[in-house]
Design brief:
Elements (H helix, E strand, L loop, with lengths): L1 H16 L19 E3 H13 L3 H8 L12 H11 L16 E2 L2 E2 L7 H5 L16 H17 L4 E4 H10 L12 H8 L4 E2 L6 E2 L5 H12 L2 E2 L2 E2 H5 L14 E2 L1
Parallel strand pairs: 6-9
Antiparallel strand pairs: 1-4, 2-3, 4-5, 7-8
Helix pairs in contact: 1-6, 1-9, 2-7, 6-9, 7-8
The structure holds iron/sulfur cluster (SF4) (2 copies).
The site of one iron/sulfur cluster has 9 residues, from loops.
Amino acid sequence: MKTAILTAIYDHFDHWSSAWRFSCRSGCSTCCTTRVTVTALEGRRILDFCHTNDRMEWLVGKLAIDYSLQPQAQTTNEFVAASLEDLDDMPSSHHSRNPCPFLEKAICTIYEVRPFSCRCFASTSPCNELNTATVDDDYLYGSTAAMQLIEHLGQFDSWGYLQDVLLLEIIRNDKYSFQFADQGKHLLEKLLPRLRRAQPLPGFVLPEAHKKIISSLIEPILSSQIGGYTIQEIFNGKKGSDIIETKSHSQQ
Ligand code: SF4
Ligand code: SF4
């Protein structure tokens, strides 16, 4: 059920974001860095994809490198919870100089299952080493809201950098753990301080000037039917006891 909800969020976001004209093109990859963050749910999708396509050895090779990442201070929902208290700015982009390990010849090698952080990252002007992505506030608030829903869906499971989440999933999954049999304990000691837990929705940031456009994304997602229930009902516990109640705060 969670994968169906995730796919519904991706699809609604694709439809909603088609109103923008972006400079993003195949082979344009300055934004593909090691700072992409994901939920464990999205990580498992990538693992399943690699497993099905007989690419586990390839994947393990990508993850065997130590990317020396600094821990993230907050998940998206933790950041928004803090923003709802003291009106902080929105999160900054994931621009960094280190290319994503899944980038080969400027093409994403896991494009079909790339996480939402990659799907929503876009720019209305071409990026380069000096200029990071530019998007308007409507897009930034909407993509943040969708990211929050995905974090809510994966709540209490791990959340962090793509490489770290994938490594943890391999180490703790009997099907794959033999890949790192000798190093599992050592790797966990390095990984765990960098990983966080995905958090439930604290509410959305909905400034009045952007409320209509953000709602035009959130409302169709929450009213989508999965297995006879709306996503809103599932999030509120009517179906799926592992997904707890959604709070409904908003910032005016
Ligand atoms: S966000 Fe920037 S670097 Fe990434 S595809 Fe779009 S224009 Fe290219
Ligand atoms: S997973 Fe793919 S789209 Fe995402 S940053 Fe890496 S190469 Fe780019």
